[in-house]
Amino acid sequence: MADEPLIATEPQPFLERVRRQLRGLYFGRDREAIRFQVAMLLVDLAILGFFIAGPYLRSGSAYIIVDYLIAAVIAFELAARALIAPNLRYWAMRPMTFVDIVVLGTLLFPGQLHNFAFLRVLRIWAISQSKLVTLLLHRIGHGDKEEVIQACVNFLVFLFLVTGFVYSNFFYGAKGFEGFVDALYFSVATVTTTGFGDIILPGTLGKLTSILTMIIGISLFVRLAQAIVRPYKVNFPCPQCGLSRHEADAVHCKACGHVLNIPDEGA
Q1: How far apart (Å, rounded) are the C-alpha atoms in residues 134 and 234?
Q2: pTM score, two decimals?
C-alpha cells in the first residue's frame, strides 16, 4: 500500500498566532492562563495604589518615570484587547476602552489633562468585572458574596469618582491632604443626604454636581443595602416562565411551579 502524500499546512500569519495566544491567556482556564490573569490583576492593583497616592507623589523625581511605565502597561492592554476582540467596532464600543484611552491620556499629558484623572478610579470597577475575581470567590467558598461585593464596589467607585471630580474642579489648589479630604467629606455628606452645609460647591456646575451626586448616590446606597439584607439567590432562568432569580436550593419555580435543575457544586 503506497504511502499517502503528506499535505503541507501553511504556517499561520504572525498576527493570528499572537491573537490566539492572547485569547488563550485572557480567557483560558489552564495554569498558564490563570497565572497570567493573576499577574495582570496584581499589576492593576499596583496601578490603583499609584493612582491613589499620585497627588502626593508629584514632587518626587521618579514620579514621571512610573507614570510613563503605567502608560506603557495600559497601552499594551488596549492593544491586546483590540487584538482579541471579534472586531474593532466591538472593541471601540466597550466602555472600558474609552475609559482606558482617557486614562492613558492623563498619564501621557498629566499637566494638560489632570482634570480627567479622577476617571482612573474606574479601573477598580474593571477589576471587579473580571471573571478571575468570580472564579477566585467561588474557589474560596464565597461565591454567594459576589453580588454584595459588586454592590460595594459600585458604590465605592461612584463615591471616589465624585470625590475625584470635586477635587479636580474645586479643591485642586489646596495644600497637602486638605483638598482631597474636603472633597471626600462633601461627597459622603451629599451621597448620604446628610447635608451639613459647611462645604458647598459654588456656581451652576457645583449645583448640578450636587444634584447628580444625590440622585445617583442614594440609588446605589439603597442597592447596596438590598444586596446585604435580602437572601442570597442564584441567576437561573426558569425554562417555563423565565423568572431569572431563585433560591440556591430551590427545586420548583416559585412563580409557575416548574421543576428546576439548578447546578450545584455540592458544598
Answers
A1: 14
A2: 0.64
Residue where the block lists cell 461612584? 158
* Residue 51: partners with Cβ closer than 8 Å, 6 or more residues away: 117, 120, 121, 123
- Cell match 507614570: residue? 67
Q: How many helices (H) and strands (E) in the chain?
A: 10, 2
Q: How far apart are the first and last CA of the chain?
A: 58
The cell for 250 is 430551590
- Per the CB < 8 A criterion, the answer to whether 103 and 120 are in contact is yes
Cβ contact 258:239 at 8 Å: yes
Closest CA to 130 of 41, 31, 255: 41
pLDDT at residue 234 tops 80: no
Q: Contact, 259 vs 245, CB < 8 A?
A: no
Residue 196 C-alpha cell reads as 451639613
Cα–Cα distance, 103 to 113 (Å, whole number): 9
**Residue 104 and residue 74: Cα distance in Å, rounded?**
7
List, in sequence order, every residue forming a beta bridge with 136; answer none if it has no partner: none
CB-based contacts of 69, cutoff 8 Å, min separation 6: none
Rg of the Cα atoms in the chain: 24
Q: Is the dihedral of CA 124, 129, 132, 137 positive or negative?
A: positive
Hey, is 204 helix, strand or coil? helix
- Mean pLDDT on 213-239: 78
